[in-house]
Amino acid sequence: MSFAAPPVRRVSGIRADAIPFDELFAAQAPVVMEGVARDWPLVEAGQQGPQAAAAYLKRFAVDRPVTAFVGPPEIGGRFHYDAEVRSLNFTAERIPLGAFLDRILSRLDDDAAPALYAGSTDLDTFLPGLRQENDLLLDHPDFAQQTPLASIWIGNRTIAAAHHDMSNNLACCMVGRRRFTLFPPDQVANLYPGPLDPTPAGQVVTMVDCRNPDLDRFPRFREAMANAQVAELEPGDVLFYPALWWHEVEALDRFNAMINYWWNPVPAYIDTPHTTLLHALLSLRDRPGSEKQAWRALFDYYVFGDAGLPGDHLPEAARGSLGRLDEMQARRLRAQVLNRMNR
Fold this sequence. Notes:
By secondary structure, the chain is α+β, with helices and mostly antiparallel strands. The chain has 2 domains: 9-263, Jelly Rolls; 273-341, no CATH class. It has helices spanning 21-27, 41-48, 50-58, 97-106, 123-126, 221-226, 273-283, 289-304, 309-312, 327-341, and strands at 9-11, 31-33, 65-71, 78-79, 91-96, 115-122, 149-155, 158-164, 168-175, 178-183, 229-233, 238-241, 246-251, 256-263. Helix 1 (21-27) links the parallel strand 1 and strand 2. Helix 2 runs antiparallel to helix 3 (50-58) and helix 3 runs antiparallel to helix 4 (97-106). The longest helix is centred in the last third of the chain and has 16 residues, at 289-304. It comes from Croceibacterium salegens. Residues 116-280 form the JmjC domain.
């Protein structure tokens, strides 16, 4: 069975140099900004057809290989696992971007074409100069601490299974239509995440096929369905969604391209929480329930609560790692962690 979810909120009349970031960040919910990038040259080239879009991209492509995923026709474009969840249902290869574009074009009208997908390709490294003609004005204090990472995603009809990213995202639909099915972070248990390793592209993915969910095998997915939202994107539309929102991404046309921007509003010296999650599996998960509850209280106090509270009652010089985190303090904490891990 398939399911229909309500649409993501849509707004219009926003310019690429005047995105209301304060409003977006305060709401902490997905929103589609219609036509923000409609006048970008890449979008205009795409309106002329796949060949024109590919030719425009080739103007900027450098002669160095990108990572491309190739899946057999029988996977239906969905990059995932094999039936035993022992390996992936596709292969990865290194190929120059121009040659990858030619491969897509050569099979445009072939219903038995393999699924072809080059994702998360660094825009400035592989297509230098393209952002001079196709770019958002990222003017907000959130972007001051970490420079947003701009990437491009190119392929034919493909599906990225629902997963979460650790960063906020601005997804700009350039060529072809895309559909995002989004789930809030609290739906993680209802999405039946797969293995932590290996993963199709670095992030944990749902084991549920959202196009045709098996509710006998995954009954809690009904609750995820009740909380889902869908964003249908036309070329030029820009979707914002916050960090850790789960999202399935469907590229719906014969040739598709998307540019996205990832960022977190924290300094670059702050480590990824995924490392903490992995270490918590090692150190906390299998302890007695009473101990885990006690550790939950400690984490609420030191980590998830008011950041200033644990050190407020101490002289500033004595706060150490309980004081304000800066680059030097981050180095000290990292050294302590490494020292304990290497005992």
